[in-house]
Amino acid sequence: MRTDPEVADQMVETVTRWVDREVVPHVAEYELADRYPEPMVEGLKEFGLFGATVPEAYGGLGLDVSTYARVVEELSRGWMSLAGVINSHLIAAQLILRYGTEPQRRRWLPELSSGRRRGCFSLSEPDAGSDAAALRCRAERDGGEWVINGTKMWVTNGERAGLVALLARCGDEGITCFLVDKEPGRSSGGITVSRNIPKLGYRGLETVEMTYRDHRLPADRVLGGPDGVGQGLRWALAALELGRVNVAARGVGVARAAFDAAIDYATKREAFGRPIAQHQAIQFKLAEMATKLEAARLLTREAAAKVDAGERADLAAGMAKLFASETAAELALEAMRIHGGNGYTTDYPVERYYRDAPLMIIGEGTSEIQKLVIGRALLRRHAEGA
Description:
Layout: H1 5-23, H2 27-31, H3 38-47, H4 65-78, H5 80-99, H6 102-114, E1 119-122, E2 138-142, E3 145-156, E4 163-169, E5 175-181, E6 187-188, E7 191-196, E8 207-218, H7 232-268, E9 270-271, E10 274-275, H8 280-308, H9 314-339, H10 350-362, H11 367-385
Parallel strand pairs: 1-4
Antiparallel strand pairs: 2-3, 3-8, 4-5, 6-7, 7-8, 9-10
């Protein structure tokens, strides 16, 4: 279902004003201290963004992915970490929406949509990142329960989450997705947040390691019910299409912020008797930056439109994520070069863009993995056409 264009524009404009007023002036005090931005997250909650893509029937906003991508771009223009707060949460919600039983949808989606319960998505492990099928976290049947043991890495929102979409191996039955409810905090039942992982960028929200030791779950915590056993990896990879659109939109937001900072600085900074924007070398940089920014935005919107249309979007989402993330990194570096020495200081935001951008090259599948996804999709399309 498409969002009414007028409603979509109003939503984006409201978020834009909020970012300019409540985020941009205060980012540094949270980001440099690596402090959770509770007031900003409350703002996301008040806007209903924890249920952005969840249908209204389950308490969400029911936004289409195209509108959601525009919102993520605006959030990331202000501070990329804010988009991360809702991404992992909405991947978990998307899994329940697409593959959960109706009782699971009714139980979890209203709480997730309201933000009363935060969600997170837990796939990666110390030895299973790009090779997702190699995960070792295991789930074993014990009467009418499942017992979970293993360690998970790179869990965004893991400490504050009250629901974890957890991927675990069920012996010969395959990888399964479990809905693990927990109390927010560092321990809950057999779950321990082992440590917070310090990061170069993407600061202000927790990225944690989580350990499961004999954590027991009732049988109804299998996503999709009994038929969901062994389906988890396939479902998770499909749900990551939304995550890749999110990361692509983040890349557009960071690239846009870097470009805006660069062109503004170039018109004010003088060298050799005139603003540096009047020097051909700087104009060439700005021209290339603007062109790549627009291309990244168009690829991202095309991917979002395919998801909205119900079309297969792995190729479009992979292309958008690949190009937008690499563009964000390139434009952040170019903005720093245009700023010269000032760009290397914390007095200007471009050093933050430079630190945040690599996360998008790595997160939701590295650029190299995206190239594999794209290559395989191109070969499949060629074979089908032949």
